[in-house]
Acetylornithine aminotransferase (Glutamicibacter arilaitensis), 370 residues
Amino acid sequence: MQWIEAAFVRGGTSKGLFFADEWLPEGPEARDRVFAAALGSPDRFGRQLDGMGGGSSSLSKVMVVSRSQHEGVDLDYTFGQVAVDTGVTDYAGNCGNLSSGVVPFALEAGLLQAEDGHQAFTLFNTNTSKIVQVSLQVIDGRATVEGELSLPGVHGTGAPIELGYPDPSGSRSAGLLPTGNPVDLLQVEGQEYPVSLVDAALPTVVIEAARLGLDGTERPEDIDADKPVKALLEKIRRAGAVAMGLCANPEDAAQVMPKIVLAAGPAPAMLLDGSLSPASDCDLLVRVISMGQTHKAVPGTGAMCLAAAAQIPGSIAATLAGPRNSDVIRLGTPSGAVSAAAHVNAGQLEHTSLLRTARILMKGSVQLPR
């Protein structure tokens, strides 16, 4: 059997395997085989029992981290989303949740050294060729774990890790509004669907839930069980990818992006823990579809993109959220309200930010069949 050094890390509301670049074999095909086998894909049962994955998009991820070759940058990192069913690794976008685990992992793996205290680091994400700024507390040379920040969907509390995305517009497209319009009409199955096509940290297609006969408070499993709606959402997502210039044909759209978001105005909603979240807890209700599954919270980059979308006059997110006087938006997710911020100056999006927590769950080696 083959053993490869790795760490298992929770970042935000995701978990994944983290590797130092030097631990992996050379070549993209060899690395993709490692990632799929380590996570337990392909798996026709969708459970990844023969690997470290958890059978959902938020639990089937990898990060590869290295010392940076870029001036003024501490670390380079590459995110891979491994499809549970096929084992194909998609590198089309970044992961905001797992990005919070990059510095804690690098400190533990010896890729980075830092003095104790509040420290700031600069990262380069190779998926999007964008800078990510990370600030956190260091104790005894390691990222602090204990703290008072509670994340919806994560039991307990942890030390805050701030992620900042300077100049997040156009992570994979021509700009914040790839088409130049706050709302576009997509032709799908002979009907027109108004959407907002926004790219800040992550290309995203935003559609009002009511356009599909939904109210935005649905539980993830209920959306996933509605096969006609899921199929229509996928067609709209792929049409949005073409309109954003991400691909030439709908069938060529990447799995990992753009994400598609069902949005609605504030309303009471039952959360996954059985509690009722009042309408006053959020500014915008969202249900995010990621890799064909409804996310139980919200992708970190998706949250920041929605914060930016809410700052665009006339966009679907801004219209549903209503007038606001804050950079911060509270997103109502199936796990509770998640806050993200987008700062606009003189009509230009300058940066987005998000608070996460992270914890290294295990370090050692993963066993791979030869």
The longest helix spans residues 227-243. The radius of gyration is 19 Å. Residues 32 and 209 are 36 Å apart (CA to CA). The first strand starts at residue 2 and ends at 11.
